[in-house]
Design a protein that fits this description.
- The chain is an alpha/beta fold.
- The protein starts with a strand and ends with a strand.
- Helix content is about 20%, strand content about 30%.
- The structure holds zinc ion (2 copies).
- One zinc ion (ZN) binds near residues 45 and 47.
């Protein structure tokens, strides 16, 4: 199976065998975007990060691509969804998992049309009821009685607390909080993904213990009302103690990728757009 990997500033084809290897289920993760809601650079900002020439400092809105041998899905589809699908050469998408309804996570959904056309089917979207209500309002034309020709086709699916299956891939939702807004993180095998959170209840931590790979949000070094700061994210990582952790949903206020990376403890990496890794079960 062929995958795209970003090396230096260009995307290259890599070959991996993923899926069931012995009894170990192998999942490939690719960061499609690692920026906060405004992306980096921010429009009209000339701070050091926004004017940086380093490709690692160019961050689209937060999203990951998750692939196994027979499943391809993304978590969140923000305003950069189209560009992200093109850049990572995603030719098939089985489902979209939504963490919550903020625009930087749902703003690109109109572009599922391309996948509708290719598969001749609606795209499966997994989100909780509150998020479904927002989708029906924001994309009212998709759900209206009169179906204008060529509109996107979305099949809305619930997120059962005990977990659900996308083509055999088991997904466990993990409740976290974005200030007061309940948001879903997800656990898939030994991989955990949490964005837009600054409070994680004990029962949710219990769902994460034992994972080997963790993606967690950190907006900047200073405290923020609805996101982990870098320090808070590092403290949370230490509690869960995965083998590797990756920081995402990064603001220009975090500073330069190259400089912040040097300050991080072993096993913790600042993610960047195009970075990928394989959860190999080890
Ligand atoms: Zn966000
Ligand atoms: Zn800036």
């Amino acid at each position: 199976m062929a995958f795209l990997k970003k090396s230096n500033s260009c995307w290259q084809l890599l070959n991996f065998n993923i899926g069931l290897s012995g009894n170990i289920f192998i999942v490939k993760i690719t960061f499609l975007g690692t920026g906060t809601s405004q992306g980096v650079p921010v429009i009209a900002c000339n701070c050091n990060t926004c004017i940086s020439g380093d490709e690692h400092d160019k961050r689209l809105r937060t999203s990951v691509l998750i692939e196994t041998d027979n499943v391809s899905l993304v978590i969140d589809a923000g305003p950069d969804f189209r560009q992200q699908m093109l850049r990572a050469n995603v030719i098939r998408l089985d489902a979209i998992l939504l963490t919550h309804e903020h625009k930087d996570h749902i703003g690109g959904l109109d572009d599922v049309r391309a996948f509708n056309y290719k598969s001749q089917d609606a795209i499966d979207i997994y989100s909780e009821e509150r998020v479904q209500k927002v989708l029906k309002k924001d994309y009212s034309y998709v759900f209206s009685e009169y179906q204008y020709p060529g509109i996107p086709k979305m099949r809305l699916n619930p997120v059962p607390e005990q977990g659900f299956d996308v083509k055999g891939l088991n997904i466990l939702p993990v409740r976290v909080f974005h200030y007061r807004l309940p948001v879903y993180g997800f656990r898939i095998g030994n991989f955990g993904y949490i964005t837009d959170a600054n409070y994680i209840p004990e029962e949710s931590k219990e769902k994460l213990y034992g994972i080997k790979y963790l993606v967690i949000n950190a907006l900047r070094k200073e405290k923020h009302i609805s996101h982990f700061s870098l320090r808070e994210a590092i403290d949370f990582i230490r509690e869960i103690s995965p083998k590797k952790a990756y920081i995402t949903h990064i603001s220009h206020q975090m500073g330069l990728h190259a400089e912040v990376s040097k300050e991080l403890p072993a096993g913790i990496t600042l993610a960047y757009d195009g970075f990928s890794f394989v959860c190999d079960g080890n």
